[in-house]
Design goal:
alpha+beta, 4 helices, disordered C terminus
Length: 159
């Protein structure tokens, strides 16, 4: 029998994972906080304790957990085209439409802007027509400019 098959999750974690920004000795002594569920803005530990998710999955879950509309949109995206890189001129319709939408929102909000394009650090597979219960989310992207940058410069924009 495989010895590892009888280990608890805590023991497996202690033997298999490196946790950044964590005390290795504390983890070896006390074990990790193991989370088993999440809903909206809370996460639940294996002990049953429910906590506010202060890190929001390190900002990748800024719309909350368990959002039915996002689950459905994700399922559709995974069935159709779950990923497409941008190298060598490759693209995908959802990303093109999202970039156009972000650019339009920015140009409508910031009069006189000379922003010409949107750059996304990773391809976006979010639906272009979000569910009606989807609250406004934060999307960070960098912008290329039509004219030479001014001495003030501008960093990433948040829409």
């Amino acid at each position: 029998m495989n010895e590892r098959a009888i280990l608890s999750l805590t023991q497996m974690d202690q033997m298999s994972l490196f946790h950044p920004v964590s005390s290795i000795s504390d983890l070896q002594k006390n074990g990790p906080s193991i989370f088993t569920a999440a809903e909206r803005v809370t996460v639940t530990r294996d002990t049953g304790q429910t906590l506010l998710d202060m890190g929001a999955g390190l900002w990748c879950v800024n719309v909350g957990y368990g959002r039915k509309g996002l689950v459905q949109a994700g399922a559709v995206a995974m069935q159709e085209l779950s990923f497409q890189h941008f190298f060598g001129g490759a693209s995908a319709e959802p990303t093109i439409r999202l970039a156009d939408r972000l650019l339009g929102l920015f140009l409508d909000t910031v009069p006189g802007s000379d922003m010409a394009r949107v750059f996304s650090a990773t391809p976006d597979r979010t639906p272009m027509t979000p569910p009606s219960n989807w609250s406004t989310t934060t999307t960070t992207c960098a912008a290329s400019r039509r004219r030479k940058r001014s001495s003030r410069g501008r960093g990433p924009i948040t829409v």
